[in-house]
Protein: Putative transmembrane protein
Organism: Pseudoxanthomonas suwonensis
Amino acid sequence: MNATHGRPLPTTIPQYLEQLREALRGADPAMVQDALYDAEEYLRSELAEQAGRDEAEVIASVAGSYGAPEEVADIYRETEVTVNRALRPPRPPKRRSLLGRFFGVAADPYTYGALFYMLLSLATGVFYFTWVVTGVSTSVGLLILIIGVPLLLLFLLSVRLLSLVEGRIVEVLLGVRMPRRPPYTQRDKPWLTRIGELFTDGRTWTAMAYLLVMLPLGTAYFSATVTLLAVSLSLLVAPVAMAFGWTGPGIYLEGLHVALAESWLGALLAFAAGLLLLFVTLHLARLVGHFHGWLAKHLLVRNPLV
């Protein structure tokens, strides 16, 4: 095989990766990042095993087994569809009525994933914020010493690692495609060039900004979720409290108690209000899931460049 789609086969690994990136133009950036990482890993392992052969010969032989760039791009697009169908939970049927769409949110698995993410985000937000603030202050403060530079580099690499971990959490709980491999970097570049790219790559800093902003976002998500769930569930148990003679839901303020359900009619109205608020909370969780998935996609995923 000497050419694919009218184009000559690449003779170097960077050329192969460039053609693969062009063939995947318009695809999900997270998938492109994974494809480039996998391709380079395979090509370099083949080149290491066949150390006595020319790089162009190795790539030509690899094109017959691994595939030419355009063929690999087609395989990745097809595999992406297959994997998404296998991993994603079945979508709930579309409902046309307004009531069906309102109550149908309870049948969407990602609603509960988003709800759990909102609760989890407080813990992750505190950890991310603490890690970034401590890492920046420590590494920058030690730059006057010889240990400061390697410590700063390790910290920036840890930011990339945390962004990869956060991406996996986002994909599992929110259903947004995120990278499953580390960010692609051309590995035959000199070390100084690669270190420089660590500083000049905008995604290093946007990932750091994401980790910082997770603290206020996580606090807001957690507070809203706990408050809305507590209020809605307390209203839902009003009939049960009425049946057993317990103190029903009410407003407590400096020793003053204003009962919201002192009769069966009030208890039933409280139950209806709690049910309505519960579904509003589920819709809010789904909305937050869409927003946060969009935010993570734009701050944690970069378009890989060769």
